[in-house]
Amino acid sequence: MDLSIVIPTYNEKDNIEILINKLKCQFSENKISGEIIVVDDNSPDGTGKIVEKLKEKYSFVSCIHRKGKLGLSSAAIEGFNISKGNVIGLMDADLSHPPEKIVQMFKEIENGHDLVIGSRYINKGKIIGWNLKRKLMSRVATFLSIPFTKVRDPMTGFFLIKRECLDCSKLDAKGFKILLDILVRLKCKNIKEIPIIFVNRMKGKSKANIGEIFDYLKNLWVYSKLKYSNFIQFLKFGIVGISGLILNLLFLFIFTEFFGIYYLISAIFSFSISMTHNYFFNKIWTFGESFGGDVIKKYFKFVGISLFALVINLFVMFILVEKFSIWYIFSQMIAISFASIFNFVGNKLWTFNDSK
Ligand code: GDD
Ligand code: MN
User: pTM (2 decimals)?
Assistant: First the structure.
């Protein structure tokens, strides 16, 4: 089997037969041994029954019937899981995606690409029949995906992928945007976008709704944690550091002014308090550890790294002031950046690294 095309359906009675016939022509004209897998969510309009009839006529058609409307991505994944082709494709049932493009896409996979995408947002691609609101929403969603992929149209529901690259166990079945999930979670190196003209459906209604937008935003949050976890940890580390500094100054003031303690002794107390605060917040919040577990040992490691960072701080500052004649305040700003990076990396790799 060369090619499996998965088509999720929910209320597509006026479209599915036309699409299956068009795909059949594409397969036979181009001598592709292909199968079609419809995944129907018990459509009230009887789409499932229409596919059952087509199944009797065409041996290359199969159908998964699910209990109810369980979502586009999970339908796609169920289809992928029973597919037999070396190449697996996904497309909508509503004739928005041009079946004629499949042959070209299939050839690109044969030429060595891992993933070929039917794209509306590259040269010669376009959308016909959408109102301004829909266009805008799609553009905003696409814009928000920029930090996660170089693909210009990760929102499209039309693509072909090599079987070796499709590890469904790594995919998240929630939401509408399975392609972005594939791009973020799977390793497809060789990706190609091919322009398509997307035509809004003539029959039936779109199933996109507000819930889909929330799912999408939730997914983006998960992706940012996956992709930028180091950066987010560094930000948290910075926030803890700044709050520790504020705490330090506050206690220095309180001890000295209200308790009449000699200011250098106050400084030792306030330093200890802020160090302890930094340690626990970084342990629990930044690095996601529990309260217990080598608390004391790690505390000393944390203090050790912090003192080492202070040495780096002073050293960099000294060099900048003495050798480069930079004003000591600017020098300190640069030196603090170096020391903070060391502090973060040191604590991440040593103090809070349980594999060591
Ligand atoms: N089985 C199943 N279950 N199929 C579903 C479900 C579901 O819960 N929801 C939607 N579908 C099917 C539809 O029957 C259709 O074949 C396809 O998924 C796309 O749904 P539409 O209702 O046509 O959605 P759309 O046109 O708003 O969304 C299209 O544009 C997006 C890009 O902007 C689709 O192509 C999406 O895949 C695409 O992400
Ligand atoms: Mn549609």
Answer: 0.79
